[in-house]
Structures are given as structure tokens and as C-alpha cells.
């Protein structure tokens, strides 16, 4: 099963395995968490911006109705690979309603996920295009598109309980891939707050960290156009990250 679009019904029952003390509000399972995310309005600046972008649109998408709400995580509830990006793109996920769907960053991400056997197709076009992820789950530091792709520290903190809840529910995760410094720092800060000791670690493309009691942490430059158009992140560099993630998952546990 893949989780992507809003869950229209009541929160699914029978999620007693998920630790309630880590889960915000009424959320007790991924479906309920996704619903809480979609309804969230903790960050007025971001909610206003997403709605405005959805109203004004850009010429190439002017005939489309934008999602313009918080974007929940997407992927396999049994995932062993957890990918953490920064935020929905204003005309990408904020338009389509699915993580990394409908923009250049998504083309890089889903292309790699397909190549390494985590996705059943290389392109992610819309949230109802039928794409399925296997063994991978995609999330973001904030679930609302920020102006200039820059969420404030307060907005990152406001959204962190959703990340914490996801990580608590995705109990099979063995590799966390942080895309960019903000994703890396947010993840490390969360784990420190939970009492883990990552030691002295810093963001670096291609770095691999083993923190006692936690999944292996990989870090990569974010596949934003700013990085991919300038050669900061090249296709071979990107491919290497996913080859390493795949190799880690293929290691006997
Ligand atoms: S960024 Fe996160 S906390 Fe802020 S409004 Fe969106 S979903 Fe809510």
C-alpha cells in the first residue's frame, strides 16, 4: 500500500503499535497523520503564501487547480529508506499535492528511485498518476511551500512534530537520506532532542553517519535546480548516493 492523497475517512483503527506520546493531536497512524498535516494551519505566513501561489499560478499551469495545502508524506509504510527534503515546491508539490511531484527536483528524485528499484516508474506527474513506491518514503522538513524556499526556524520547529511522528510510525527504516543542510540539521536536532548522541557531525555531500540506536544517516545535496543547473550536484554524484542507499539496504541485518 502507498500513502499519498488525503485520507477521506476517519482515522484508521488498530494502530496500538504506534507510540501515542510521540504523535501529535488525534493522529495515531499514517493515514490520520496525513489528514492532520493537510488540515494544519500552524504557520500563517506559509499558509497564506501557498494559497496565493495557488490563486495566481504561473502561465504554464494556469489551467490547473493547485493543491495549495500542506503536503503529506508519500510512500511505503514498510519503507526502509526514508528521504527527507526541505519543502514543497511552489509550483511542484504545492500544485500537485504529492511530495516532489511536478518539478525538476522530482524528476531527479523519482528517476533515481526508479533506477534503484524503489519506484515503479521514473516520472511523477500528479498525485493520481498511479506511481507506487516500494521500500521508500518521502517527507519534507516543512509541508508547506515557503517564499524563496526558505522556511523560518519557527516554521521548521512548528512542523517538526509531524516528522517525529512519521519516524516513529515507520518502524522499518534503516537508512535516512537527508537532502541538503537544512534537512540534515533538522533531523540531527530532532534526534538529539530525543536523547540520541550523534556526536560532532556536519552536513557534507556523500557523508554517511552511524548514530547508535538509529538508522544510517546519508547526506546529499538537494536536487534543486540551483544545484543541478550549476553542477554542484551532478547526475553521477546523485546516482552514487542511491547506489550507496541500496547497498546499505541489501546488507544483511
Ligand atoms: S509547514 Fe508544517 S506546521 Fe507549518 S502550516 Fe505547514 S504543515 Fe503546518
Automatic annotation (TrEMBL):
Alphabetical list of CDD domains matching this protein = UDG-F5_TTUDGB_like (cd10031)
Annotated Uracil-DNA glycosylase-like domain ranges read 72-242
Tell me which InterPro entries the record gives: UDG_Type-4/5, UdgB-like, Uracil-DNA_glycosylase-like, Uracil-DNA_glycosylase-like_sf
- Cite a single GO MF annotation: 4 iron, 4 sulfur cluster binding
| N-terminal signal peptide | none
Manganese among keywords: no
State the UniProt keywords alphabetically: 4Fe-4S, DNA damage, DNA repair, Hydrolase, Iron, Iron-sulfur, Metal-binding
Reading the lineage from the top rank, the first entry is: Bacteria
Q: Name one Pfam family in it.
A: UDG
Q: Name one GO biological process term.
A: base-excision repair
Q: What family name appears in the similarity comment?
A: Belongs to the uracil-DNA glycosylase (UDG) superfamily. Type 5 (UDGb) family.
Recorded protein name is Type-5 uracil-DNA glycosylase
The taxonomy runs: Bacteria, Bacillati, Bacillota, Clostridia, Eubacteriales
Amino acid at each position: 500500500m502507498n500513502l499519498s492523497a488525503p485520507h477521506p475517512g476517519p482515522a484508521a483503527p488498530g494502530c496500538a503499535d504506534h507510540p501515542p506520546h510521540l504523535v501529535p493531536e488525534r493522529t495515531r497512524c499514517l493515514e490520520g497523520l496525513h489528514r492532520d498535516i493537510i488540515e494544519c494551519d500552524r504557520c500563517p505566513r506559509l499558509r497564506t503564501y501557498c494559497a496565493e501561489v495557488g490563486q495566481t499560478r504561473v502561465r504554464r499551469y494556469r489551467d490547473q487547480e493547485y493543491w495549495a495545502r500542506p503536503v503529506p508524506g508519500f510512500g511505503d509504510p514498510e519503507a526502509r529508506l526514508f528521504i527527507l527534503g526541505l519543502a514543497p515546491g511552489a509550483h511542484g508539490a504545492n500544485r500537485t499535492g504529492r511530495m516532489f511531484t511536478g518539478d525538476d527536483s522530482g524528476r531527479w528524485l523519482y528517476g533515481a528511485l526508479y533506477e534503484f528499484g524503489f519506484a515503479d516508474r521514473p516520472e511523477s506527474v500528479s498525485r493520481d498518476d498511479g506511481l507506487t513506491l516500494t521500500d521508500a518514503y518521502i517527507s519534507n522538513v516543512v509541508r508547506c511551500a515557503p517564499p524563496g524556499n526558505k522556511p523560518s526556524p519557527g516554521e521548521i520547529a512548528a512542523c517538526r512534530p509531524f516528522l517525529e511522528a512519521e519516524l516513529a510510525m515507520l518502524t522499518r527504516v534503516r537508512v535516512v537520506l537527508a537532502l541538503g543542510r537544512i534537512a540534515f540539521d533538522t533531523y540531527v536536532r530532532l534526534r538529539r532532542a530525543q536523547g540520541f548522541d550523534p556526536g560532532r557531525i556536519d552536513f557534507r555531500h556523500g557523508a554517511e553517519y552511524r548514530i547508535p540506536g538509529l538508522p544510517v544517516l546519508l547526506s546529499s545535496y538537494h536536487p534543486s535546480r540551483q544545484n543541478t543547473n550549476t553542477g554542484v550536484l551532478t547526475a553521477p554524484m546523485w546516482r552514487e548516493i542511491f547506489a550507496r542507499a541500496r547497498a546499505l539496504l541489501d546488507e544483511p541485518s
